[in-house]
Amino acid sequence: MNKKVEEIQNWYRNERELSNYSIMDIGDKLKNLAEKGLIWVLKDVDITESEEIVVDYYLHKYRAVQIYDNLQHLFPIPPSNDECASTPSKSSKKVTPLQNQQHTLEVRDVKQFNGYQKAKELEERIIELCKNFPSFEFDHIVNQIERSAESIKKRIQIGEQIYIREKFNQYSIAIGSAKETSAWLQVSLGQKYITKNQFEELDNMVNQVIGILTKNLSNIKEKEGKGLDLPSPYTPNVKNFGAYDNALMLVESIYKVTREKAFWKERYLMSKMRKQATSCVANIAEAHQLYIPKKFRFFNDSLKSLSGLESSLETSVSKGMISEQHLEKIDELKNSIRNVLTTKMSKISDEKAS
């Protein structure tokens, strides 16, 4: 990575840390970067949905002035508000936020971290296991479970930095990806692509990674994070969430019905329905992480998958491919999931408003 790009990305992460991730506070900084032709460097940074909207807006508005070459000759990146607040005397030494070690962490060798080692082993085991999956699942379950497993390791790597809030953010994503991985393992078990012993062994590894990350965040919050408004590092067990079990049963029902002879010539519709059903359960699992806005987003994505499945089911009924008996059971599960999610999202909205 270009050193200037990395410098700007680190500067922006620090500004987010200082502003407590408030989009109102960092909006001017994003505009400043856009006007200087550097907003594009944030496309590779993990940012919130609100930030992504603002970045895309400014990238489009200032696309003509973006600078991609010879960045090392550019002027220094803009100072933070804290640095601009006062002008130091010639004899005083200016201390930047990066030099201020309050509320920062010591960077370790991530490869020596047991959480990373477990995540790496989990990914390797899953890749090896997926070699035995049916070929028609390679662009679906195999792709998704390998992606989610890789995400755990990747986010732990990115989380090894000095910024406390960013570490919480990256570990939150890692925890969500771990829970999503567990969901794909359960789907695989349900379709008999893996044995119960294989599931239990890998699911236990997933839980170990979550436990290690949770313990680390708890220690950071208790020690280095004092005075910061950090979320609770403890996440609920998705397997105790009613909509999750029903979503798994929905997947079973969709796979069963799409194996019927009527779907043999409707491969595209069959594949779409399976993806919509499994996306519902995967999003429910991934929603069980630290930050309320992310929970809300993943629950909402699960509802979108349900709506898409509803449309596909209507098409199947119109073509006479699904019996009323099967449709009734699917509708019952679908409605139950939707009711639980909408109730949960309503409570989340109340929490955000309070």
TrEMBL record:
This is Four helix bundle protein. It comes from Oceanobacillus picturae. Pfam families: 23S_rRNA_IVP. InterPro entries: 23S_rRNA-intervening_sequence, 23S_rRNA_IVS_sf.
